[in-house]
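Submission sheet (multi-component)
Chains listed below:
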Amino acid sequence: MLTHTAIRTGFSRAANNASPRAHSGSFFDSISLMGAAMPYGRDAEIYGENEPADYVYRVISGAVRTYKVLGDGRRQIGAFYLPGDIFGLETGDEHSFSAEAISDAKILVVKRSALLALAERESEAARQLWSVTGQELRRVQDHILLLIKTAKERVGSFLLEMAKRHPGGNDVELPMSRQDIADYLGLTIETVSRTLTELENSASIKLASARHIVLRNRRALGVLNG
Amino acid sequence: MLTHTAIRTGFSRAANNASPRAHSGSFFDSISLMGAAMPYGRDAEIYGENEPADYVYRVISGAVRTYKVLGDGRRQIGAFYLPGDIFGLETGDEHSFSAEAISDAKILVVKRSALLALAERESEAARQLWSVTGQELRRVQDHILLLIKTAKERVGSFLLEMAKRHPGGNDVELPMSRQDIADYLGLTIETVSRTLTELENSASIKLASARHIVLRNRRALGVLNG
DNA sequence: CGTACCATTGACGACGGTCAAAAAACGTGG
DNA sequence: CCACGTTTTTTGACCGTCGTCAATGGTACG
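Outcome: structure written.
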């Protein structure tokens, strides 16, 4: 139990894409039995900002966005979560972002108190909880680096990020709308659209359809990305 | 030991400003004896990006910046750390940012392995390590919200943030240069300077000197800050 | 086949970046 | 304490990128 080797549970086997790249997969695989798989429809709220953080979540299938809305209506998307990813794990008592299903999704829901109890007994479990938060921290730090770049760099980096997280080589299937991408990258929908067109014109990508993008020149997408 | 009430050690008493607002102050107060206070000169490197994260740090006096430099030379400052703040705590084996002293500083240096060993024995210590990373996560998330705002909003939010962290009401003593502020806010030094002048002209602040700013209208600084 | 919704394209303007110079602040040594 | 040189900050002029407003085009679904 709680070994490094992933323990494949019924729930994680049911996942589309639960894969080795998931956050601390072994840990959450092993505690999958503590939770239940819940279905969420497109745009359904999973939790709201400032609500009690009583549960921790893991994407089984579909995709999730977390976000905040500022006073004047601007929305900032904090992260996209794909199958295998863990989200909603807080060290405090409340969620700091809201979470919604981007598409129809199956989400494994685990009681936070169960994890905390386990962590109290098993130091390895505590280490894994810490590790999940640490990975999230690094992800958000990378996000900051995105936000100081030019529009072309942001969109390029975003596509590379999605390609890395998604299995399927150079073919990227985007689960989210242009508006979601824009709110993630701190751009407008028009700039995202224009930039994608530019990247296609420069033969860096191919827009097979609005949500299906083929990477043709990864170097061009990653230039200057430190 | 490890109680909620701060245990004032010799080291923390020596601090300029170690105060209740520090990250998990009680925890790090109690393990202060495990480390040593080290002096760092202005601009001295404390650790570099990708170096082994063998130590965890706490500011006793002075100030610290963490940063990354992108391929083309742009620098992004991840955070400023003031007396009482903990930094350099990683869940992985390497530091993800570099750290430098902004001014002459005294820093408490603690062996990470000692903390990990303690966390293995005491679940409360493990919880506190997790909590420190969680607070850092929230700080970085707030930083993201800064970066999507206009220049005036970024500078205003920055001043409010510094005023909150610094004791001293409406008088803010900035330890860092305009260049540091610019690299933290994702702006240029010129835009930061111009924006401060604008804020002074609109009577929102007073520039007593370049590094000493008096807040005159906090509402104007915080408008739209969601 | 029609109707929303979503994405793309266009025209234009504003915000902030760039390049350059002046002014202020700071530190050092006479 | 003042004079000097260096660094930091401020100010100015100009320009490019991206946001805004508006219209067109495309796609999915009933």
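Remark: The CA atoms of residues 82 and 125 of chain B lie 23 Å apart.
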